[in-house]
Amino acid sequence: RIFSDQSVLTELWLQNNKLAELPASICSCIHISYLDLSHNSLLSLPDEIALLQKLSKLLLSNNRLVKLPDGISKLIALTTLELACNQLVELPDLSKTKLTVMDVHQNRLTS
Question: Which among 44, 63, 69, 91 is most buried, taking Cβ atoms within 10 Å?
Fold first, then answer.
């Protein structure tokens, strides 16, 4: 276990590693507002990502994501979502978030 439950961690940079999955313990760090997972090998995200209710910036560019979990739509504090250079074919409903910045270039979106 990398992180303890209820960690006071507010920012986490994990970019440029070789993560194929998000460690579940990160989703117990409910105070995280900034999470950089860009430049990894993520194929998916756990539904538990919805537990990060204070998350405002989520950087996921340059991974191998094909789909985002529906729980991402429950991140009501989310203002920035970077998804460039993945393999996404669709996006979930993000209307309940506070997105002001979203980057989805170089994916496989069709609509």
Answer: 63
